[in-house]
Design a protein that fits this description.
By secondary structure, the protein is mainly β. It contains two helices and twelve strands. The two termini are about 30 Å apart.
């Protein structure tokens, strides 16, 4: 099962707006860190599975106000990117965006293959067990080294964690806003 973490909306990230049906208008693709050198470049921490889409002439949206900035240049650097934006030619001018999130328009995201999902599509889905009993809702997705983990908020306010693999997530139905889970024995409180 693909984790679908492409253009993920991380837990705790600022609101991205919506286009109805809880679809966000913007999707987080990175985070600007610090200026690099004297030419206005900044380190961009990559938070997307499609970093190749970040290139010169592309418009990215920066910060909570989603300020549109056109990429002047982009190059790989130590598992991340160095980006420069048009109109910013020194570290002082671009430094104002230090630690700002960077977004793409959700409408510009690439299509995924069957069985792949974006994180934001899974957050909020009604979680059901193998027998159709309501477990609560998916509230977060944790990224681990082996596989992602779904965090499900139970009706009593407790959380359970379920590995996001074919074995434990047999079906996802976005049209019904449901995700079916196969639970590990003893995972539910009181069992």
């Amino acid at each position: 099962m693909k984790t679908g973490k492409s253009y993920r909306q991380k837990a705790g990230s600022p609101p991205t707006g919506s286009q109805g049906d809880s679809e966000p208008a913007f999707l987080v693709i990175g985070k600007l860190r610090r200026p690099h050198g004297v030419g206005g470049e900044m380190y961009l921490e990559i938070l997307t599975d499609f970093p190749e889409r970040i290139q010169a002439e592309v418009v990215l949206f920066v910060g909570e106000q989603h300020i549109p900035l056109k990429v002047r240049s982009c190059r790989p650097h130590q598992n991340n990117l160095l980006v420069a934006f048009e109109g910013f030619t020194d570290p002082q001018s671009i430094g104002q965006y230090r630690n700002a999130l960077v977004y793409f328009l959700a409408s510009d995201r690439p299509n995924l293959e069957d069985g792949e999902f974006y994180h934001h599509q899974l957050i909020g889905l009604q979680a059901l067990d193998e027998h159709g009993a309501d477990l609560g809702a998916v509230v977060d997705i944790l990224e681990t080294g082996a596989n992602d983990v779904l965090v499900v908020l139970l009706p009593d306010g407790q959380e359970i964690m379920v590995p996001y693999t074919d074995e434990y997530v047999p079906t996802i139905d976005l049209h019904k806003a449901q995700i079916h889970l196969r639970l590990l024995p003893g995972i539910l409180p009181g069992t």
